[in-house]
Design goal:
There is one protein chain. The chain is α+β, with helices and mostly antiparallel strands and about 210 residues long. Helices cover about 15% and strands about 30% of the residues. Strands 1, 2, 5, 6, 7, 8, 9 and 10 form an 8-stranded antiparallel beta sheet that branches.
Length: about 210
């Protein structure tokens, strides 16, 4: 499969989040096994977004340098970089950095439709039903064996990368508020393939 170039992510976060629907998440194991899923749900987060990890950071008015502490600094990395973090001390979440380098933004991959390596995903998660393997960001990361080691790695080349798939027509795309947040709940920055059974079942915030 052909990896998406860095230029795909060097754009508005909102545009990337929408356009990632239908593309593929691929993880090639050293053993030669491959896990592939079609992206069916995403969320966008930007520098000026109160729900974004970079929102508490500030810029030096003279140099433009980012000041502050915390994991949000890595959201200013080059487009196409993996931003992976742990929530509740249990679940890893995979994001891809967007916008030009020096501007914070990322798209959270919330759900994929499993296509290859399903047996490996079932063994990893201890779940038999295909529909439950990757219908949520924590499930997705576990099924694809994604953890903190992937953080700050490029998602534009193997072993873990985003690949070209098939575009999803606007008529098949739905939007809603994002899930599991308490700030900026009015922003309709969650995109998903309508009526796809692999979309996460959680309710939008607000």
């Amino acid at each position: 499969m052909e990896p998406l170039p860095a230029s795909f992510f060097d754009r508005s976060t909102v545009s990337v989040a929408r356009d990632l629907l239908g593309e593929r998440l691929v993880h090639e194991a050293p053993s030669g096994d491959r896990r592939v899923g079609r992206i069916v749900e995403t969320e966008a987060y930007t520098e000026d977004d109160p729900a974004c990890h970079a929102s508490h950071l500030s810029r030096d008015p003279k140099t433009g340098a980012v000041t502050g502490q915390g994991r949000g600094e890595d959201l200013f990395a080059a487009p196409g970089t993996a931003y992976v973090y742990l929530i509740y001390g249990v679940h890893w979440l995979l994001n891809v950095v967007t916008e030009p380098k020096g501007t914070a933004g990322a798209v959270l991959l919330r759900a994929v439709e499993p296509e290859e390596g399903i047996d490996d995903m079932q063994a990893e998660r201890g779940v038999e039903r295909r529909v439950r393997l990757t219908n949520g960001p924590g499930k997705l990361a576990e099924a694809f064996e994604i953890d903190g080691d992937a953080h700050t790695k490029s998602l534009t080349a193997p072993p873990l990368y985003l690949a070209a798939g098939e575009a999803v027509d606007d008529a098949q795309v739905a939007q809603s508020a994002r899930i599991g947040i308490s700030k900026a709940v009015e922003r309709p920055w969650r995109w998903y393939v309508a009526e796809n059974r692999f979309v996460s079942p959680a309710r939008p915030s607000g």
